[in-house]
Structures are given as structure tokens and as C-alpha cells.
Amino acid sequence: MAKFIYRMQNILDIKYKLEEAAKQEYADAMMILAEEEEKLEHLKQRRYGYYLDYNESIKGRLDFVRIDEYGNAMDIMDEMIEAQIEVVREKSKDVEKARNKLNTLMQERKMHEKLKENKFEEFKQEINAEEAKETDQVVSYQYNNKDTEE
What we know:
This protein is mostly helical. It has helices spanning 9-59, 64-149.
């Protein structure tokens, strides 16, 4: 029996490898984004701690140096938070780019897999047609031999 050979199998193999690389790239981008979001959350918690200390220093004995220090610390934390928010936005864009790239590669791979399936179906139909032709020839030969024997 004939063996099915897909002529573009090497292209399909490359598509699989590219897709795997894109999956890894996407996972890496997601991991980096999660780390940056965690840093942002940590900065927000630190700022909240300074806010609580600031409010506490206002309620108690007025120590203007400490009040000023906490106010400055909150301002610095606000700047750091804004910078970290920008980093998170950048990393989110990177994740979106990686996701789009992965989706494109997955679509290309699926398209090639569908082409392979179609070619395989054509191959099966050709094999079935050949077998039917051979069967017809055998039946025809047997029928013709019966006529000559009688």
C-alpha cells in the first residue's frame, strides 16, 4: 500500500517550533508583567504605610520634622508609583504583542494542519479509487475467464 507523504511537512514542523517559541515568549512576558504588578502593589502598600504614619504624627504631639518627612516620603512614593504604573503599561503592551504573535502563529499552524488533512483525504480517495479500479479489473478478468471457459 502507498504511504502518505505530506510535501510541506517541513513547513508544518517549522510552524510547530515557531508556535512553541511564541508560547514561551508569551509565558515570559506574562511572568514579567506579574512581577511588575507585584512591585506596584508593594509600592502602594509602602505609600499607605507612610500615609498611616503621617496621619498618626498629625494626631499626636506635633513634630513638624516627622510630618514633613512623611509628606516627602508620600510624594516620593507617588512618583515611584507613577513610574511603576508606566512600567506595568509597557509590560502589558509587551504581553499583548506576544499574545497577538502567538495567535497569528497558531492560525498559520492550524491552516497548515488543515491543508495536511485535506491532502490526506485526497490521498485516501485516490487509494480507494485505485482499489476500486483493481477490484473492477479482477472482477472483469474473472467474468471474461468464465465466458471463455463456458
